[in-house]
Amino acid sequence: MTGGRLLAVFLCLATVGLVVIGTLWPVPAAAAWAGGTGGFISSSSTPEGAVNNFANDLGHHAWQEAYSTLANKGEFTEQDFVRDMTGSYPGLRTYASLDNFEVRPLHASDNEAQVELRLHWSTVVGTFLDTRTLQVVKNGDHWAPVWPIVKEQHVPPQVIPVTYLRWDVIYRGPEDDWGAQDVEAPHVRIIDMHPVERAAGVVVLGELLNEDVVPAYVSVKATLLGKNGSPIATEDSFDKISHLLLPKQVTPFLITFPNVSLSDVDSIHMDPTSSLVAASADPVIEIQNQKLSPAPDAWFSGSLVNQSGQNVSIAHVLGTFYDQSGQLVWVADQYIDRALLPQTPVSFAIPVPEDLARKISTERAVVATYSPGGFQ
Amino acid sequence: MKHAFTFLIGVTVSAGALPALAQSGNLDLPKSIVAGSAFSIQSTSSAQGVLYIVGPGQVLKRDVQPGQPITIAAGDLDCAGHYLAVLTSGSSTETGEFDVVPGSQPATLSFLAKPSRLPVGLQSGISGAVYIFDAFQNLITAPTPVSFQLSIPSEATQSRTVVSRQGAAWTDMNSGSKDGNAKFVAQAGDVSATRVIQQVPGDPCGLKMSAKKVGEQIQLETDPLRDCSGNAVTDGTIVTFTESWNGGQTTVDVPLKHGIAQAEVPAYNGARISVATGVVMGNEIRWANQ
């Protein structure tokens, strides 16, 4: 009986002790869950502490609190600050939440410091990184960050006439006879396919052409077959493809098979699928200044210019890379976190694996766009 | 579902009749009856009874009066198949079997024409299959001639006549050289079914662009795009312009509008500009600023 009481007292004390330890020195995962990796209890008495607090406020979408801590509030309004964080027009940023952040001190003096803040925003299509280099200045007994605001350009009110083609579809009705004619699914063709082995597993790269005269919603599924002909794994391209293909348009695709070795694979069964969808040839996106910076630290960069009159909420850039013989080497992609406004360039930069970057001779980019209302 | 229910009733009735078959006689039945036609059965029974007719798609029940023929009216038995007739009267049972065959006159055609859209100039690219049914939706399995006709605007009509086998007839046709809607007609007897086959232009032939300077930009424009048969390539087709200069590149995918594609790219001295659509490459221009 006494032993039981002792055990109960011990468990209570241990619980209280662990709660105190967890609060004062939280593990990074717990801190991230609660809204930031910088820790809860930070003081603005150091540059890093001030930026930590600021980032924590961003994580909680406490824009007013975050704005109030800035040293350069006079340079822009709180609304400008919120627009910088969430975007002026609906885009990936609008619905993003802060997954975690990193604060890296670059240098510091008695009254001024420079800190790199890396914000990892979480979205439905993965995370995107927003890196800002902040000056932090000392104000009396505390430090305050100077926010390097990015002001989005505004498009003046205007009417832009657009006369691009649009396709609508009338399908067979449920009351029609089974032999009645229906609209034909678009004809698509894989024009290139190439498996490569990477550290994560087997990656199947390729290109798909819509060889029809109507728009197609496409997807590609691949099945790896073993030496005995039995399937090893089946995966599809998910979002590593431009799903909407207009007539004669080509999209790259990338299918990843984690934890599979290419030596186990005898053949690959490819299964491209397409369906006819209503679509518009608008918007047209020009991809300017595409450049591949060489390895190490290889990036494929450029800027997107929306040549149409419609705002594009989310743009997805897919880069296709070829070697000197024209063989497909790699496919990489990036979502653009801000809306594309008409005639307003937005830059992109896609990292390319260093070992592959050395083989790349030419590259090609395509852009998939998503706007409210789907394909219409 | 309906057939399953009918089958269940049939099995039940047949099973009920089996014990009595030992004392039974045979009904005087025609060997086959055309679906939907009227007929009568003569009964030798001297007592009141009930006649059951059980088949794959139908079950009929008729009360039988002594000495009177049993009449099945036109349209009562319309589902083709092999039928069992059981007449129970007091302790005696008479049975018989007969076939209900489809009518010989086609009433409806199920016409499968594929594809509904295809490029011009494809040999055997269009297939048509017809299933022939009588007025009661029974598949007519007797050999029946079916004519297929593919009418293409401003081209000779292609015709084929095929005799059906087991209720089906099929053929294939070539697509023409001009784009537009082709009429694909299948006819059996007095009945016909029509499908529309959209013939669309093939891959562009001789893709060519020109360039001129407009302000600080180069305006690129293709000649009107046509396929190798001279058909105008469909609007909306994507044309890709690529400008390469000094390690940099600009690309733009533009849809064809009124037969031509237009785009503007920055004017870089010495830039190489190429044009392509799908897997078809066009000409290349080396730009020199004036």
CATH architecture of the largest domain in chain B: Sandwich
Q: How many discrete structural domains of chain A?
A: 2
What structural class do you assign from the helix and strand content of chain A? alpha+beta
Radius of gyration of chain B, in angstroms, nearest whole number: 34 Å
| Main sheet overview of chain B | 6 strands, mixed
Q: Indicate the mean pLDDT of chain B.
A: 88
* Sheet with the most strands, sense and barrel status of chain A: 4 strands, antiparallel
Characteristic terms for this protein:
heterodimer; A: 376 residues; alpha+beta; 2 domains; 6 helices; B: 290 residues; Immunoglobulin-like; 3 domains; 5-stranded mixed sheet; 25 strands
What does this structure look like?
The complex is a heterodimer of chains A (376) and B (290). By secondary structure, chain A is α+β, with helices and mostly antiparallel strands. Chain A has two domains: 23-146, Nuclear Transport Factor 2, Chain: A (Roll); 155-376, no CATH class. Chain A has helices at residues 2-24, 28-33, 47-59, 63-68, 78-86, 354-357, and strands spanning 97-108, 112-123, 126-139, 142-146, 166-167, 188-198, 201-210, 216-225, 231-236, 244-245, 250-258, 267-276, 279-280, 285-293, 299-306, 314-322, 328-336, 346-351, 362-370. Chain A has a four-stranded antiparallel beta sheet, with helices on one face. In chain A, strand 1 and strand 2 (112-123) form a beta hairpin. The termini of chain A are far apart. Mean pLDDT of chain A is 89; it is low at 35-39. Chain B has 290 residues and is mainly β. Chain B folds into three domains: 2-101, Immunoglobulins (Immunoglobulin-like, Sandwich), CATH 2.60.40.10; 108-200, Immunoglobulin-like, CATH 2.60.40.10; 204-286, Immunoglobulins (Immunoglobulin-like), CATH 2.60.40.10. Chain B has one helix and 25 strands. Chain B has one helix at residues 2-17, and strands at 25-26, 32-34, 39-41, 49-54, 59-64, 70-72, 81-89, 92-101, 108-114, 117-119, 126-133, 145-151, 158-163, 168-173, 180-188, 191-200, 204-205, 209-214, 217-222, 226-227, 238-245, 248-255, 262-266, 272-277, 280-286. In chain B, the strands form seven sheets. In chain B, strands 1, 2, 4, 5, 7 and 8 form a six-stranded mixed beta sheet that branches. A five-stranded mixed beta sheet of chain B has the order 10-16-15-12-13, with no helix packed on it. A four-stranded antiparallel beta sheet of chain B has the order 22-21-24-25, with no helix packed on it. In chain B, strand 24 (272-277) and strand 25 (280-286) form a beta hairpin. Classes of the chains: A alpha+beta (376), B mainly beta (290). Chain A binds chain B through residues 163-165, 167, 177-179, 181-184, 191, 209, 211-215, 246-250, 281, 284-291, 302, 307, 363-366, and chain B through 109-117, 131, 193, 195-196, 200-201, 203, 234-239, 242, 247-255, 257, 263, 265-266, 277-280. Strand 14 (285-293) of chain A pairs antiparallel with strand 22 (248-255) of chain B.
